[in-house]
Each structure stands twice: as C-alpha cells, then as structure tokens.
Amino acid sequence: MTVRGMFRPGMRGYIIPLIAGIVLAASAFLPWIDVDDVAIPGFPDIMALWIVGLGLLAAVLATLSLWTRKNSRHPLLVVGLMALGIMFLSWRLMPRVMTDRALTRSQALAIVENTPVRQSPTALAGSGIYVGLAASTTIVGFGLTIVVKRASKPYAVDIDDDV
Fold first, then answer.
1. How many domains is the chain built from?
2. pTM for this model (two decimals)
C-alpha cells in the first residue's frame, strides 16, 4: 500500500485519531503543574508514562487502520476512555498533591531554619493536562462514532420464528 493510497476517501477520518494520539503522547512532556512560577512536566510520573503509551497506541491503531483499511474504532474508544480517565484524575488530583507537598516542604524548612512558616505556594493545572484532556476527548469522540453509526436504526427488526 502506498502512502497516497492510505489517504483515499473512506479512511481519511483516521487522520483525526492519528494526530490526537501524537498530541496525547506529546502532552506528557508539557507542564502538568505550575507551582508559582515553576512548571513541572508530567513525564517522570507514572500517569504520564501511561499517557505516552496510550497516545502512541492510539496513533499506531489509527495508522494500521489507514494502512490496512480495516476498522479499529472499538479499540480506539477503549484507549481514549482510559486516557480520558487518567487525564481527568490528573487534572483533579495533581494540583492538590503538589500543594500539599509544597506546604510540607515549607513547614520542614521552617522547622529546620527556626523561622515562621511561609504561606504555601499555590499549584495550578498546567497546559499539558488541558492538551491531554482535549486529545483524549477527541479520541473518545472518534471511537463513539461506531456506536452512533450502529444505532442508526431506531427500531428492532422482528425475527421470523415461524420457521
């Protein structure tokens, strides 16, 4: 199969999860948490490793679908849902965890230096989490098209049981 043949009508839609998978994998290297002026990337964390793996898996599934002209929307839906769950939990939990770590560190420094405790810095979700959420939502949306396409008949077909 040539590269030109991969982009023939009918399978061009798989370019969307291909790009979204690459963006999802790249989002792990962007800043996930901003503590005051310090940006902390997500990569050394286990959740970011999962995101890289799921993003690359989505890109591979989309590339195989373009190449073999076979449908892979169900696996893309599962991969997208897993990535969306991880990104959602990261968005909700990581800023709190980093705020607690910063507070613990400032308290430890205050004890060691015998000074009053400074105000804990605030931790906010960084751009990497939002990019990952958008990419995983795109993959889930593309995977859900198989459900919408299958449910196009709003009625049930009667089975002939008089045979």
1. 1
2. 0.80
Q: Is residue 2 part of a domain?
A: no
Q: What confidence tens digit (pLDDT) does each residue in 70-126 have?
A: 788 889 999 999 999 999 999 999 888 888 888 888 888 889 998 888 887 888 899
Q: What is the CATH number of the domain that holds 89?
A: 1.20.140
Residue 159 in domain: no
In a domain, residue 163? The reply is: no
Q: Domain residues for 63?
A: 12-145
The CA distances from residue 52 to 7, 96, 142, 146, in Å, are: 26, 23, 19, 25
